[in-house]
Structure formats: structure tokens, C-alpha cells
Design goal:
single chain, 289 residues, alpha+beta, 6-stranded antiparallel sheet, binds N-(5'-phosphopyridoxyl)-D-alanine
Length: 289
């Protein structure tokens, strides 16, 4: 694999950064994961908008324009001849002496890592996956705002470790007050009596690009969407359907929460209908270009 590192495309073995990089020392950086369908980056403008928002919220000076970043992403894909992939762009505070002051790092480090990817196994979509509500709480927005897509991921990793011990595919984190927030790398939705429900963004979650597309799709199909109220984990237990959303998952059905069967234990009709609609409306156009 060839990697983009500070303006150059280099072989993976040569894509090395200093131990003094503040991304390594402090997890001081931001990133985006984007999906590539048929050689084209999915909803690139939405991802770049969020990337720039993350940069602003962490006072990271992005040394590139949106157009330059787009160019670098495509250059990396082309260097690897990738058509079905995901691609991660990451910017850290950069090389600097030990110390927290960002002024110690005159230049950010920019890395782009691509990987061939054809989607998660079809079996997951047929059978659904299991999730576990974990004890680790999602970062409070006044501590480290989950709106920032930060490389500092220990909060999510601790949640993931807990869910792995419970043999679950994904962890669901609650807010400090015990309301359902999100997964470690995805947003969560459920369906109850024909209404699509998802936690509000102000509760402290990442504003997922996929989440937003699913809400728009549901509304365009006259499905009632509720995203103003927060809810406890019991609402998930009593849901008719449940699913996760992310750039790599698209819409992933959930059939068990904390070992409890959701609905009849199979992916629900609304979930399947939304996944089909998502692929037809948003993904298929990339194969016609
Ligand atoms: N994860 N919540 C969290 C904490 C995430 O890390 C992600 C994305 C999402 C979903 O956002 P989107 O729909 O824009 O992908 C929600 C990516 C896929 C990752 O970590 O690689």
C-alpha cells in the first residue's frame, strides 16, 4: 500500500513519523474516514466540512484548502489503483518538543491511508449483529466534544474492550446521565411503532454523515422521525427494530441488545427498506458516473 505523508506518496514501510509527533505523544489530532465507490469518494463535501469543523474546534491550522485535500485523497487512491475502498485522512499537531502548548509544533503532520474495502460481510446484513450497552460513558461535550472527530480514541477503545468481553459486535455508550449516545464508530437508530428514533446531536455524539442521510431518506419517504428526545437503554430493549449507521456499515441491522432479542430477532422491515433505499438513492449514482 502507498501512503500519503506530508505531500509525498511513499511505500507503507517508509510512511514513518517521529516519536515526538504530538499525535503519538498526546493523541492530538483529527481524522475522517471516507468511503470510495467505483473510484469516487462518497459525499466528500460533507466529510470535508466536518473535517474543517474538527480542525476549528481543536485550533488546528489546516495547511491545505478543501480542493487540495480532495486532490491529495484522489492522488492516494490512484497511486494504489483503488476503486472500492475506504480512505482515512488524519492531521496531527505535528512534530514538537514534549509539552502541551500547540506552539511547540510548527507544522502539522498529514497522513492519508487507503484500504481496499468491499463492505462488511453480507451475513451481518442478513442476520443482524449484537450490541452491548457498556459502562464506559461517552465523553461529555464539555470535556472532549464528540462532535470533534478526534484521533484521541481511548474513550471509544475502552468501550470496545468492554463489548468484546461480552462477545458483542459493537458497544453502545451512554451519556454521563445514562441516555443512549452512540456506538464506538457509529450512530444508532431504532424503530418503535412505525417511528424512526435516534439520539439528538446536542446530547454529545458525532454528527454522522450517514446518520444525516438516513434521516433525510426517511423523511422523503414520509417516515416519522424523532430526534429531539433522549432515551434510556430500556427503549432499545423494547424497540421493534434497531440499526447502526456509519460510512463503512451504511445501515447495519441490530438483532440483539445486551443479549435480548429485538423484534422477532431478525432484521426489521423498515431497516431493510432503508438500507435498500440508501443504496439505491445515494450509492447507485456513483456506479452510473
Ligand atoms: N466512524 N460515531 C462515531 C464515534 C464515529 O467514529 C463514526 C464514524 C460515526 C458515524 O459517522 P459517519 O456516518 O460520518 O461515518 C459515529 C468512522 C467510520 C471511523 O471511525 O472509521
Amino acid at each position: 500500500m502507498k501512503i500519503y505523508l506530508n505531500g509525498k506518496i511513499v511505500p507503507q514501510e517508509k510512511a514513518l513519523i517521529s516519536v515526538f509527533d504530538h499525535g503519538f505523544l498526546y493523541g492530538d489530532g483529527i481524522y475522517e474516514t471516507l468511503r470510495v465507490y467505483n473510484g469516487q469518494i462518497f459525499k466528500i463535501k460533507d466529510h470535508l466540512k466536518r473535517f474543517f469543523q474538527s480542525a476549528r474546534m481543536t485550533s488546528l491550522n489546516l495547511p491545505m484548502t478543501e480542493a487540495e485535500i480532495e486532490n491529495a485523497l484522489y492522488k492516494t487512491l490512484q497511486a494504489n489503483k483503488l476503486k472500492e475502498a475506504y480512505i482515512r485522512i488524519q492531521i496531527t499537531r505535528g512534530y514538537g518538543e514534549i509539552g502541551l502548548d500547540p506552539a511547540l509544533c510548527p507544522k502539522p503532520t498529514i497522513v492519508i491511508i487507503p484500504k481496499e474495502f468491499h463492505g462488511h460481510p453480507e451475513e451481518f446484513y442478513q442476520k443482524g449483529v449484537s450490541v452491548a450497552v457498556v459502562n464506559i460513558r461517552r465523553n461529555h461535550p464539555l470535556a472532549l466534544n464528540p462532535k470533534i472527530k478526534a484521533t484521541n480514541f481511548l474513550n471509544n477503545i475502552l468501550a470496545k474492550i468492554e463489548s468484546l468481553k461480552k462477545n458483542a459486535y459493537e458497544a453502545i455508550m451512554l451519556t454521563i446521565d445514562g441516555y443512549v449516545a452512540e456506538g464506538t464508530i457509529c450512530n444508532i437508530f431504532f424503530v418503535r411503532q412505525g417511528v424512526l428514533i435516534t439520539p439528538p446531536t446536542n446530547i454529545g455524539i458525532l454528527e454522522g454523515v450517514t446518520r444525516d442521510l438516513v434521516i433525510r431518506l426517511a423523511k422523503s419517504k414520509y417516515l416519522r422521525v424523532m430526534m429531539e428526545n433522549s432515551f434510556k437503554k430500556e427503549a432499545l430493549y423494547n424497540a421493534d427494530e434497531c440499526f447502526l449507521t456509519s460510512t463503512t456499515m451504511e445501515i447495519m441491522p441490530v438483532t440483539r441488545v445486551d443479549g435480548k432479542k429485538i423484534g422477532n430477532g431478525k432484521p426489521g422491515a423498515t431497516t431493510k427498506w432503508l438500507l435498500k433505499g440508501f443504496r439505491e438513492k445515494y450509492v447507485a449514482p456513483y456506479y452510473k458516473k
